[in-house]
Amino acid sequence: MQAYPLLISGLPNSDTLQVWQKNGIRCLLNVSGIDIFELYPDYNLAAFTVAQFTFADIFTLAPPVEATALADSDLGSLYVQLTDSHQRQALLAAVQCLQAQLQNRIPTSVFCHRGQGRSPLVAAAAYQHFYQETGQQAIARILAQHRPAVFTRLSLSALHWCASQLPT
């Protein structure tokens, strides 16, 4: 299955938004925790469908790890232990939103504050399900597309948790 363009980034500025609009990006998936309408009150975002999800950036607080850490037996429980249900449901909703954009072939930009933790995680979880691939394959796809992405033990746990929550 071929996905339409997916950009992963940090917070865009108004010039970036213009470029995205000219390049056909139609959906903005904001996981930065900062309301994009408050960031750019004078920018007309009507050309975009905007989806915003708020969950804490706890993923880049630890050192990066290799994707092979996905095999650890306690991996799935770490994310659940360190987050509340609201945080988990917001992450899952963001992943499901991005999956819908991929399935409907809508060019999308997913972004968080720095483009290192939350947006790559949401993209990896959506890719894992969309392409029916392993977590390692989804992470490799993200790292090939967006080099600033950082995956920590906690983000791997969240990726594992997302996979367990999504229908097969």
The secondary-structure class comes to: alpha/beta
Q: CATH superfamily name?
A: Protein tyrosine phosphatase superfamily
What's the N-to-C terminus distance? 16 Å
Second rung of CATH, namely the architecture:
Alpha-Beta Complex
Short characterization:
46% of the residues lie in helices and 10% in strands. By secondary structure, the chain is of the alpha/beta class.
Description of the structure:
This is Tyrosine specific protein phosphatases domain-containing protein. By secondary structure, the protein is α/β, with parallel strands linked by helices. It has a single domain (6-165), classed as Protein-Tyrosine Phosphatase, Chain A. Helix content is 46%, strand content 10%. A 4-stranded parallel beta sheet has the order 1-4-2-3, covered by helices on one side.
List keywords for this structure.
168 residues; alpha/beta; Protein-Tyrosine Phosphatase, Chain A; four-stranded parallel sheet; 7 helices; 10% strand; globular
Topology:
Elements: E1 6-9, H1 14-22, E2 27-30, H2 36-39, E3 49-52, H3 75-82, H4 85-103, E4 108-111, H5 118-130, H6 135-145, H7 153-165
Parallel strand pairs: 1-4, 2-3, 2-4
Helix pairs in contact: 3-7, 4-5, 5-6, 5-7
